Amino acid sequence: MTTNGSTTFLFDPALLPSTYKKLPEHITMRPLSRDEKFAKYMDLLDQLAQPEASNGPRPSQADCQAHFDDMKRGGVTYVVVAEDKGTGDVVATGTVLIEQKFIRNAAKAAHIEDIVVSSTQRGSGLGLMFVIDTLNHLARELGCYKTILDCAEKNVGFYEKCGFTRSGVEMKKYHCKS
Hints:
The chain is α+β, with helices and mostly antiparallel strands.
């Protein structure tokens, strides 16, 4: 298990950049931890939900920890959080999923998902730094040949600033129980 003292992280923190340009001193980047305050973390993730969508009922702390354990065992999910050192609150998060491919000589591709910056931190540059300096760094460290993300049309300009280009069309089909 990846631990730092008594904290169990989702992955080895050494995979993250050792320094960040322009990261505010009160913010630290780290992997998601098993002892996360998941209720507060879910509050942040709720900021991703579309107005017409629902994230459904909240899982308990124990359910979140069990899910964390499943993610850790799977070894393909890397959740990074930005923590405000003063308050201990998670103010941004993003996930990198690793897809092992058969093409390109069995290469790996990274998929970025669930990027959110707290409404209290938007406009501070944290999103740009978070995407470029952390999630893309992590994808490179994990040996991925490309990074893919899907976003709402209104966010295209932001991701273009981060170095992404339009490629294809996103399609989805939900498999929710009615």
